[in-house]
Design a protein that fits this description.
The protein is of the alpha+beta class. Helix content is 15%, strand content 39%. α1 (22-32) runs antiparallel to α2 (171-180).
């Protein structure tokens, strides 16, 4: 028997096809208070997270609202699932109104011991194709942690910012983002569940939502920038409805560091590589 209990999972593949629906992009835009792209426009960066989601019926969901485990992803019962971060390469446009294809490989599973108990890290590699070419490559990290009190304290002040915006995360924003991304994880909308079962003091703001809002703020501050890559990592949760900031600074030519956080410091950190047009 293999020493790695997850060895048989590594290398598994999954494919999904979707239509980059103008109707859904209008709903995403309304959720984010952004202008809606029209058919033929490039899909805004990171909006691909609202597509390719498996339509799992209610009977196929676990207690936490995620699809039951043991299918494509490993069985990690008794642990809480969290999105830990992603690295995304922007190679060509994903085009609104066009068909698109996602290929996913389960690249790595690694068990580690953290301060709050055992952690299972899962790495997925995605390729998104549109109009016959690879448009986006993404390495996505998911972590399963043993049930334990979440780490909420920050590490200190954020760096000085070149630009900064304040976000008020209403319950409506969290609900609508869950809806447009077909994310039924209950920590984002079910107050009794998230407080009684997972130990948070309130509704948890989605990690992907923080990433999108942070990147939006960068694009508003640099309207002539052409994105090449974006990488983000979760540090700690942010809890609604407390306001937070999305901010950043340019560190060198074509490089910037971004963050989302509050007076306790960053909750998500990210880096962007870009070209000036």
């Amino acid at each position: 028997m293999s020493e790695n209990p997850y060895a048989d999972w590594i290398g598994r593949r999954q494919e999904a096809r979707d239509h980059l629906s103008p109707s859904l992009t209008r709903r995403i835009a309304a959720t984010l208070s952004e202008a809606a792209p029209v058919p033929g426009d490039p899909l805004p960066p990171l909006w691909h997270w609202a597509f390719f989601e498996e339509a799992v019926p209610d009977a196929g969901l676990g207690e936490d609202g995620h699809p039951k485990r043991g299918g494509f992803l490993p069985n990690a019962e008794g642990r809480n699932r969290m999105w830990a971060g992603s690295r995304v390469e922007f190679l060509a446009p994903l085009v609104v109104g066009e068909a698109a294809h996602r290929r996913t490989t389960l690249a790595r599973l690694e068990e580690k011991q953290g301060r709050t108990g055992a952690l299972l890290f899962v790495t997925l590699e995605h390729e998104f194709e549109c109009r016959g070419q690879i448009a986006v490559r993404e390495t996505q990290n998911i972590v399963y942690r043993e049930a334990s009190p979440p780490k909420l304290e920050g590490s200190g002040e954020s760096p000085p910012a070149d630009w900064q915006e304040t976000v008020v995360p209403t319950e409506t924003l969290l609900f609508r983002f869950s809806a447009v991304t077909f994310n039924s994880h209950r920590i984002h909308y079910d107050w009794p569940y998230v407080t009684a079962r997972e130990g948070y003091p309130g509704l948890v703001i989605h990690g992907p939502l923080l990433a999108i809002l942070t990147l939006q703020a960068f694009r508003r501050a640099h309207p002539g920038a052409e994105l090449a890559a974006f990488a983000c990592r979760g540090v700690r949760p942010l809890i609604a409805p407390k306001p937070f900031q999305v901010a950043g600074r340019v560190t060198s030519d074509g490089q910037a560091e971004l963050w989302a956080g509050d007076e306790a410091g960053p909750a998500q950190t990210s880096e962007v590589t870009f070209r000036r047009r």
